[in-house]
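Exercise (ungraded).
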Amino acid sequence: KAGVTQTPRYLIKTRGQQVTLSCSPISGHRSVSWYQQTPGQGLQFLFEYFSETQRNKGNFPGRFSGRQFSNSRSEMNVSTLELGDSALYLCASSSGETIPTDTQYFGPGTRLTVL
Amino acid sequence: QKEVEQNSGPLSVPEGAIASLNCTYSDRGSQSFFWYRQYSGKSPELIMSIYSNGDKEDGRFTAQLNKASQYVSLLIRDSQPSDSATYLCAVKVRAQKLVFGQGTRLTINP
Protein backbone atom coordinates (compact mmCIF):
# COMPACT_ATOMS: atom_id res chain seq x y z
CA LYS A 1 0.00 0.00 0.00
CA ALA A 2 1.40 3.39 -0.95
CA GLY A 3 2.08 5.78 1.88
CA VAL A 4 1.05 9.37 2.40
CA THR A 5 2.27 11.71 -0.31
CA GLN A 6 2.74 15.45 -0.11
CA THR A 7 3.49 17.97 -2.82
CA PRO A 8 5.50 20.00 -3.28
CA ARG A 9 8.37 18.84 -1.07
CA TYR A 10 10.05 22.25 -0.98
CA LEU A 11 8.69 25.72 -1.49
CA ILE A 12 10.17 29.21 -1.30
CA LYS A 13 7.81 32.17 -1.09
CA THR A 14 8.05 35.82 -0.13
CA ARG A 15 6.13 37.66 2.57
CA GLY A 16 2.58 38.53 1.61
CA GLN A 17 2.20 35.73 -0.91
CA GLN A 18 -0.09 32.77 -0.46
CA VAL A 19 0.68 29.08 -0.79
CA THR A 20 -1.25 25.84 -1.29
CA LEU A 21 0.06 22.49 -0.12
CA SER A 22 -1.38 19.14 -1.11
CA CYS A 23 -1.69 15.80 0.66
CA SER A 24 -2.89 12.42 -0.60
CA PRO A 25 -3.68 9.97 2.21
CA ILE A 26 -3.12 6.24 2.32
CA SER A 27 -5.69 4.44 0.17
CA GLY A 28 -8.85 3.82 2.21
CA HIS A 29 -8.05 6.44 4.84
CA ARG A 30 -10.64 9.18 5.20
CA SER A 31 -9.01 11.47 7.73
CA VAL A 32 -6.25 13.95 7.00
CA SER A 33 -4.65 16.01 9.74
CA TRP A 34 -2.22 18.86 9.21
CA TYR A 35 0.64 19.84 11.52
CA GLN A 36 3.24 22.60 11.56
CA GLN A 37 6.71 21.79 12.85
CA THR A 38 9.20 24.48 13.83
CA PRO A 39 12.35 24.27 15.97
CA GLY A 40 10.86 26.59 18.58
CA GLN A 41 7.29 25.33 18.86
CA GLY A 42 7.69 21.70 17.88
CA LEU A 43 4.84 19.84 16.20
CA GLN A 44 1.55 21.72 16.44
CA PHE A 45 -1.87 20.61 15.25
CA LEU A 46 -3.47 22.79 12.59
CA PHE A 47 -6.70 21.00 11.67
CA GLU A 48 -8.25 17.70 10.70
CA TYR A 49 -10.58 16.88 7.84
CA PHE A 50 -12.86 13.86 7.62
CA SER A 51 -15.36 13.22 4.85
CA GLU A 52 -14.78 16.68 3.38
CA THR A 53 -15.58 18.41 6.70
CA GLN A 54 -13.27 20.08 9.17
CA ARG A 55 -13.70 18.03 12.32
CA ASN A 56 -11.02 19.52 14.57
CA LYS A 57 -9.12 22.78 14.60
CA GLY A 58 -5.99 23.96 16.39
CA ASN A 59 -5.07 27.43 17.57
CA PHE A 60 -3.85 29.02 14.37
CA PRO A 61 -5.02 32.27 12.76
CA GLY A 62 -7.58 32.31 9.98
CA ARG A 63 -4.80 32.74 7.41
CA PHE A 64 -4.42 28.98 7.67
CA SER A 65 -7.23 27.10 5.98
CA GLY A 66 -7.83 23.77 4.37
CA ARG A 67 -10.23 21.60 2.51
CA GLN A 68 -10.76 18.00 1.63
CA PHE A 69 -12.04 16.52 -1.59
CA SER A 70 -14.34 13.56 -2.16
CA ASN A 71 -11.34 11.30 -2.85
CA SER A 72 -9.96 12.24 0.63
CA ARG A 73 -7.10 14.27 -0.82
CA SER A 74 -6.58 17.47 1.14
CA GLU A 75 -5.13 20.87 0.53
CA MET A 76 -3.89 23.43 2.98
CA ASN A 77 -3.67 27.12 2.17
CA VAL A 78 -1.75 29.87 3.93
CA SER A 79 -2.52 33.41 2.87
CA THR A 80 -0.51 36.59 3.47
CA LEU A 81 2.62 34.67 4.38
CA GLU A 82 4.76 35.87 7.28
CA LEU A 83 8.39 35.05 8.04
CA GLY A 84 7.22 33.00 11.01
CA ASP A 85 5.29 30.66 8.72
CA SER A 86 8.57 29.10 7.63
CA ALA A 87 8.25 25.52 8.80
CA LEU A 88 7.88 21.87 7.88
CA TYR A 89 4.22 21.21 7.15
CA LEU A 90 3.21 17.62 7.73
CA CYS A 91 0.04 15.83 6.92
CA ALA A 92 -1.03 12.64 8.61
CA SER A 93 -3.51 10.07 7.38
CA SER A 94 -5.73 7.72 9.35
CA SER A 95 -8.95 5.79 8.93
CA GLY A 96 -10.75 8.51 10.86
CA GLU A 97 -12.67 6.14 13.10
CA THR A 98 -13.15 7.72 16.51
CA ILE A 99 -11.63 4.81 18.38
CA PRO A 100 -8.50 4.90 20.53
CA THR A 101 -6.56 2.58 18.22
CA ASP A 102 -6.94 4.77 15.14
CA THR A 103 -3.37 5.70 14.21
CA GLN A 104 -1.93 8.55 12.19
CA TYR A 105 0.79 8.01 9.61
CA PHE A 106 2.80 10.94 8.40
CA GLY A 107 3.76 12.02 4.92
CA PRO A 108 7.26 13.28 4.05
CA GLY A 109 6.29 16.91 4.62
CA THR A 110 6.57 20.16 2.69
CA ARG A 111 9.40 22.45 3.70
CA LEU A 112 8.17 26.05 3.33
CA THR A 113 10.62 28.93 3.46
CA VAL A 114 9.28 32.48 3.57
CA LEU A 115 11.73 35.22 2.58
CA GLN B 1 1.54 23.18 32.43
CA LYS B 2 2.20 21.77 28.98
CA GLU B 3 -0.18 19.08 27.80
CA VAL B 4 2.66 16.67 26.96
CA GLU B 5 6.14 17.00 28.40
CA GLN B 6 9.36 15.22 27.55
CA ASN B 7 12.94 15.71 28.61
CA SER B 8 14.45 17.50 25.63
CA GLY B 9 17.81 15.87 26.16
CA PRO B 10 20.07 15.36 24.47
CA LEU B 11 20.33 11.85 25.83
CA SER B 12 23.54 10.00 25.11
CA VAL B 13 23.68 6.20 25.50
CA PRO B 14 26.48 3.76 24.64
CA GLU B 15 25.85 1.18 21.94
CA GLY B 16 24.28 -1.99 23.34
CA ALA B 17 22.84 -0.25 26.42
CA ILE B 18 19.20 0.48 27.25
CA ALA B 19 17.84 3.91 26.31
CA SER B 20 14.95 5.16 28.45
CA LEU B 21 12.69 7.94 27.20
CA ASN B 22 10.00 9.48 29.37
CA CYS B 23 6.83 11.47 28.81
CA THR B 24 4.11 12.90 31.07
CA TYR B 25 0.71 14.22 30.05
CA SER B 26 -1.91 16.38 31.69
CA ASP B 27 -5.28 15.19 30.30
CA ARG B 28 -6.51 12.31 32.45
CA GLY B 29 -9.08 11.41 29.82
CA SER B 30 -6.44 10.53 27.21
CA GLN B 31 -6.73 6.99 25.92
CA SER B 32 -4.13 6.67 23.18
CA PHE B 33 -0.38 7.15 23.36
CA PHE B 34 2.18 6.96 20.59
CA TRP B 35 5.91 7.10 20.13
CA TYR B 36 7.26 8.43 16.86
CA ARG B 37 10.88 8.50 15.72
CA GLN B 38 12.11 11.38 13.59
CA TYR B 39 15.45 11.41 11.84
CA SER B 40 16.94 14.78 11.02
CA GLY B 41 15.25 16.26 7.96
CA LYS B 42 12.64 13.48 7.82
CA SER B 43 9.05 13.12 8.93
CA PRO B 44 7.89 11.27 12.08
CA GLU B 45 7.67 7.49 11.81
CA LEU B 46 5.45 5.46 14.15
CA ILE B 47 7.41 3.21 16.51
CA MET B 48 4.87 2.10 19.11
CA SER B 49 1.33 2.68 20.25
CA ILE B 50 -0.10 1.81 23.67
CA TYR B 51 -3.59 2.05 25.08
CA SER B 52 -3.68 0.00 28.32
CA ASN B 53 -1.72 0.21 31.54
CA GLY B 54 1.37 -1.95 31.59
CA ASP B 55 4.06 -2.89 29.10
CA LYS B 56 3.89 -3.53 25.37
CA GLU B 57 6.87 -5.06 23.64
CA ASP B 58 7.80 -5.01 19.96
CA GLY B 59 11.27 -6.30 19.17
CA ARG B 60 13.84 -4.13 20.93
CA PHE B 61 11.20 -1.55 21.89
CA THR B 62 9.02 -1.59 25.00
CA ALA B 63 6.38 1.02 25.72
CA GLN B 64 5.12 1.43 29.28
CA LEU B 65 1.94 3.21 30.33
CA ASN B 66 0.81 4.25 33.80
CA LYS B 67 -2.46 6.18 33.55
CA ALA B 68 -2.66 6.81 37.31
CA SER B 69 0.69 8.63 37.18
CA GLN B 70 -0.05 10.02 33.69
CA TYR B 71 3.28 8.67 32.51
CA VAL B 72 4.43 6.97 29.31
CA SER B 73 7.89 5.66 28.59
CA LEU B 74 9.81 3.99 25.78
CA LEU B 75 12.69 1.61 26.39
CA ILE B 76 15.08 0.71 23.61
CA ARG B 77 17.15 -2.38 24.37
CA ASP B 78 20.49 -3.18 22.72
CA SER B 79 20.69 0.37 21.37
CA GLN B 80 22.19 0.75 17.90
CA PRO B 81 23.72 3.82 16.22
CA SER B 82 20.76 3.72 13.83
CA ASP B 83 18.50 4.48 16.81
CA SER B 84 20.03 7.97 17.01
CA ALA B 85 17.08 10.29 16.31
CA THR B 86 14.54 12.51 18.00
CA TYR B 87 11.76 10.58 19.73
CA LEU B 88 8.36 12.23 19.95
CA CYS B 89 5.71 11.29 22.48
CA ALA B 90 2.16 11.95 21.24
CA VAL B 91 -1.11 11.78 23.13
CA LYS B 92 -4.51 11.67 21.47
CA VAL B 93 -6.55 14.15 23.51
CA ARG B 94 -9.81 13.97 21.58
CA ALA B 95 -11.02 12.48 18.32
CA GLN B 96 -8.09 12.77 15.93
CA LYS B 97 -6.07 15.54 17.58
CA LEU B 98 -2.57 14.47 18.58
CA VAL B 99 -0.61 16.62 21.02
CA PHE B 100 3.15 16.16 20.82
CA GLY B 101 5.90 16.68 23.33
CA GLN B 102 8.95 18.68 22.32
CA GLY B 103 10.86 15.49 21.58
CA THR B 104 13.96 13.90 23.10
CA ARG B 105 17.11 13.84 21.01
CA LEU B 106 18.84 10.49 21.47
CA THR B 107 22.43 9.76 20.45
CA ILE B 108 23.84 6.23 20.53
CA ASN B 109 27.62 6.25 20.84
CA PRO B 110 29.50 3.38 19.14
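Further reading is listed at the end of the chapter. For now, observe: Chain B touches chain A through 24 residues (CB under 8 Å). Chain B has a mean pLDDT of 94.
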